[in-house]
Amino acid sequence: xxxxxxxxxNILDSSEKPEIFDxxxxxxxxxxxxxxxxxxxxxMLLVTKYKINNKGGNEIIRFFNKHSNLTESPLPKNIEQxxxxxxxxxxxxxxxxxxxxxxYEDKDYFLYYQNLIQCIKNILTVPxxxxxxxxxxxNYEYNRESIxxxxxxxxxxxxxxxxxxxxxxxxxxxxxxxxxxxxTLGKSQLHPIYITLGNIPIWCRNKxxxxxxxxxxxxxxxxxxxxxxxxxxxxxxxxxxxxxLLKDGIDLFINNENTWFxxxxxxxxxxWPEAASFCLVYKSSNSNLSCHSCLxxxxxxxxxxxxxxxxxxxxxxxxxxxxxxxxxxxxxxESVHNFFWDLPNINIYLATVPDRMHHLDLGLxxxxxxxxxxxxxxxxxxxxVLYNFVQNMYGICSxxxxxxxxxxxxxxxxxxIRLNLYRI
Length: 424
Description:
The chain has about 425 residues and is an alpha+beta fold. It is about 35% helix and about 15% strand. The chain has four domains: about 10-90, no CATH class; about 95-280 and about 335-355, no CATH class; about 280-335, no CATH class; about 360-420, no CATH class.
């Protein structure tokens, strides 16, 4: 009979006092990163995983102490003490592992992480997700113009799906990164990174249970920037290593049947400095080539008269050539090997996109509307009406769907008028 199914009140008299043992020698109230022993950890994992209350947990401790025949109990005196110890821990998530990434000035820098495949399986336990899971590319058109909505309507999905073995499906991995100060690790500066799946519809993907915390990347503050960048990409390599090892894909249970998938990283959502860290380009806005996606010079970034041929996009092959030929300065990339060069079906320079907070919630979208139409009298009637509508409605309806829908209409109409009228 398992502990989960046991009725400890029937096994032991509730009035019976627990055996008295000395506390584990490693136990203390100061902030620490490890449990006193494996038994202590396993108990707290059991209590946390199955949401056992304090009374039930105390009965487990009493049962163990009575029948273990140990002179010193490895368990806490009671569950309350165990919970206090967990709250004082520098890292309280029991499911996380850690690995040493680098050592600098006699200090160890660890990556705390969960297994990538297990994170994916956790997401797929939600019924709403599996019932609406996209498995193939969809092509939508209106008036001979392509319509892009979900990720599986995009060009990347189409080309990536065509590169996979016949009969397999694409599993699109989206990473979200944001360095922050976290209380979970004792007011430490750490770098959480989350995972979700592009196969999940947008309306469902924004729910909390559609995301998983993949890990905490260490933040190394050092004058040696190459070491900082190398630490960052070593951490990413360790997190995403399961993708590299899955040469034959993976079977996942979707809609009551096993489906053959190949996981691929499609998008990394990050702010501008973090996008530069993923792409390993110079972060300074004063850099000659300050855009992490293209090779347009800084003085030409606002030049709307540039033709398509003038905009040269960064690619893995070209950036790797500069790195291997020691000419990375000419394209403003760091002198560190980029881990994403080794991943299939991704151009890291195009895969990094701004997050919702910076692009929408902080008002950048509204700024784009105002900047695009400063001379309202020269706009077409459609743009004039749309401009006024957005101005009036912005404070009332700030949902992503609303803003992006009207932004698409606006851009489509502005494409048909002379943009140089609005150049500053």
